[in-house]
Each structure stands twice: as structure tokens, then as C-alpha cells.
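Before the break, one more example. Copy the sequence into your notebook; we will annotate it together after we see the structure.
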Amino acid sequence: MKALVRIEGLTVTLGGREVLRDVSFEIRPGEIVTVIGPNGSGKTTLLRALIGAVRPKAGHIRRAPGLRIGYVPQRLQLDATMPLTVARFLSLPVRHGAREIAAMLARVGIPGLEARQIAELSGGQFQRALLARALLANPRLLILDEPTQALDQPGIAGFYRLIEDIRREIGCAVLMVSHDLHVVMASSDRVICLNTHVCCEGTPAAVLEAPQYRALFGDGTGGLMALYRHHHDHSHDEVTGREGETDAR
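Here is what the structure looks like once it is written out:
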């Protein structure tokens, strides 16, 4: 199975500081991959490099020909005084028909909001509007940067269930950054632990046991293993650790 994206030796420097160093991994069709790591570990920069918003200092990002990407950013600053309806927002930059927009809003759980002003949406509604906009691109790869920041615990669980359902329905791969470790371990096929470099990667169950993961997040994760096992029954868990990278810088 050919990868949708293959990242090889990616290094990014911003403001004279090395934000990413020699990052390599791939994203395969249909899988959910979650990137975790402490604040300042380069997670958002990695996603921005993938969509072409950041220029690497070294390394390569190889995308499948014609790859369509839908992107949900961590934050999107809009002028609250600017009149902008949800329907108009979903047609930027590519215009979509009213029926298509209505169907997508219903699919992400906010039906009938076409005429609502974007500035009037709640945090949860706005996140789902961003998701609808990304899905209207009919992506083969959906990229989400901390998509549940504005949500409460029930909202977080519901949002991740929605992502899993959409993945099954349209067959896209999903790459997301998240701090919601308890949900990540139940929802992901593969986890990448990032701290400027890739510390370790593998199935969620394997990453939980990796010393590189424990160096960053400690040992208070025993309950996550049971949660993960409840949702997934992998008999062969493998983790790839990167030699010499077990410290939590």
C-alpha cells in the first residue's frame, strides 16, 4: 500500500530556533494517526509544513499525486464585526452549492445554520463548521490541529466519534494533533510522540509502554491501556523508538 504522505528527514527552523529535527514517518490510506507531545514540541509546525505553509530547512515531504487535503487549524482569527454567514464561510475559497452545504452541515451535527453569522457560533459549532469546510474539499487526508480545544468533555468525545465515523464513510486518512490522551489512545491506529524529533511511534498500546513516552508524560497512564484495549484488540503491538531520544527536553 503506497503512502499518501512520506516525510523524510524533515528539519524546520523558525526565528533561528530549530523547531523540528530529522522527522521521518509516513501516513497510509485510511488510518488515523495522532501526534502527541509537550507544548513547544513542534506539533503545529509539523502540520503547517505538511500543508505547505512552512518551508523546511532540510528534508522532503512527498505527497501522493493529486492528494486532496482538508485542514482544520488550531485557531482561526475572524473579525467579529465582519458580516459573514456560515454558508458564505463554507464557500471560501471554493464556492459550493446550497444543497451541498446543507448536507455537510447536517453531517457534522450543526444542521440549519447556513444563515447564522460566524461570529454568533459557539466554540463547538465553530469547530464543526471548520470541519465541514475541510470535508467539502473531499479530502483523502484530513488534518486537524487540536480540534477540540473549545469543547467540554462530552463535546470532545462526540467530536472524536464523528471523526471516526467520517473516516469509515469516506475512507480518508486522518492526521491530528491532540492533548486529549485518554481519547487519543482509544481512537488512533497509530501514535507519534514528538518532542522536536520523533521520540517513538507505534500502536497506542505499544507507545504507552515505551520509555520515550514515559519520559515525556510520566507513568500515570495505566488506565489508558485498559481503555485502549476495550476499543481495539491488537495482538501484535509494535513501537519504534528513536535511538538516543528518550530524554524529555
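The first strand starts at residue 5 and ends at 14. The chain has two domains: 1-68+140-249, 77-138. Try to locate both features in your own notes.
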